[in-house]
Protein 1
Amino acid sequence: MTHRQIRVPRRRPAGFSLIELTIALVVLGIIGVFLARWLMQSNQEARQVTQRSLLQRADDALLAYAAANHHLPCPATGDSGVGDCSLAQGFLPYRELGLPDQRAARIAYGVFRDNALSGVDPDIASIDADLTRAVDRAPSLQMLNNATSNSVAALVKLQDTCATHPEAGCASVPNLQVNGLDFCYALRSGMNATGKDSFLHSRRTEGAGSAVLGNIAYALATTSLDAAAPTDPAIDSPRAGSNVGQLRRAVGFEQLWSRLRCGEATGAALHAHANAAVAAALNVPAMVDYKEQLSIMTELAEAGNKSADADIVLATGQIASAVAGMFDTASEVSQTKFVWTWRTGFAAAGLGSAIGGVVAAAAMKGIAVSNVNIARTTESAFGTGQPTGSDADQTVYALDQKAPVIARRVDLEARRADLLGLSPGKAQHDAADALR
């Protein structure tokens, strides 16, 4: 009996084959690449979020600093955090701004510093528009009349309140003389000026050329404002390709003007209040002239009254003359044996005319007396400020006496508005209230 050989299958060794291992390594490599790129991107996004937050905090701190101190800080040297006013570009003075994050020391910071800006105001040849300086620079604009080209229509000048009213206390409260209105005027001057390549400005680079777009109040960046030329007071337009990978913030004069709400304050303090003071001052001589006109009106009424008396006397004389004519005519009639003559009719007409003249003169006398009473009453009411019973509106005032008081009060209010500025504190309010 033949026995068949039984074949036992061989067991495959455990583990991966070389191909499977290769595929696994490739998959792990791809996953590792994606993971690495995801981690790098996440870190970059997190870093940009941190930098954006830091730039925003720095920008907010600069706005608060400008509102409180009425100027911008000077750039710092290195990471000192303290401003160096010999610089127009440097790093953020984070210590002066009160930022607790030392990472803000590496933020690049530039500020507009032109202390002799010209060509922006026809009445002022040169304006100190250095935004790091607190200077008394805001003039008031007063419209004096609707003048022709050959006469003065407006006056632009600095308020002299601190010199003329020492009770305001400018020595003890410096912010009364130099305040936010002066900073706003520097911003207005900067926004009206043409772009200057020697001071902080934005530019657009096209091909081999570079065009100045406009002046900038201040700029912030996570690196140098211009990595190729760190001392160049220019910042590329946001559309420029050199901004890729760099976070920056450029704040123009118009934007800072709007954020500080300069328009509301300067329009009221430097224009509306100033022109109200001019109107009140011009009203003083006007009321004196009006009082003189009332006096002339009274004198004219009294002259009219005397003229009416003269007319009555004249009319009475005409009656006497007419009566004499009648007697003369009667004598002639008697001599002609009472024959009616032509002179009789004329004599009768003359007498009637004379009587009519007396009646008319008496009527004019009544009108003249009434005019005298009205003129005297009006002049008296204007002088004393007491309205009369005939004044239904009760609107008569002693304006010749009150006009100077009103003018002084309005002028002081205009000066208080100039002293208080944008964001006055209690000390500023108390000092400005001392104006009398």
Protein 2
Amino acid sequence: MLASCLSQSIFAKDDGVSIKKSCLKDYPLAVGDTDPEIIGFYNQLCDKKNKKDETLKNQLLTNIATKYQNNGYNLKALQVVDELRGRKFQSPELTDVTFLAGVAISYNALNNMRSNENRTLDETTYAPAKVFADNIRYIQPVSEKTNSAVKDTQTDKPAAYKPRQTTQKPKKQANSKPKQTQAKAKKPVETTKKPVATTKKQASGTSPFDTLKNK
């Protein structure tokens, strides 16, 4: 079935087939579409042979929603998703389309705030945006988690080393040396004072009459 869908979409590209008016009545969202692949998908939906094949119809609508989102028609993509949800159809592809379309719409609104309106998020808009950003961190890809873990370990290693101990040792040695030199310098001063004191005592003990006695 997928091979037939691709072959018909290629045929639509080559011949420039447009959407039939009867098909536009059933799918008014297709009005104004010019993408050959989208036109081919809609024509397959409106084909009488495929109207009873619910599985094929759901797949074709999923392809249309994906193509709308890739082309930047995010609101149209969400409308197709809403139609499929009404059919009680769920798939990972639809979830991805919903997520990417919602992110694109939010991103455009954020750029409009910054560039055109020159304002920031207020309390009403910031709170859900913060919750959204936090939830993305929890479900980020495994590769991103491992890369962030490696970065954390690399940044933690320098904090474990303490090079200050090596710089403190030479300071202590430099401070101890001047004390020893000062103590040695004081000793010669004390030795010079002692002989001066002894000579003064001998001079005071002599008498001027000793010379007369010798005569």
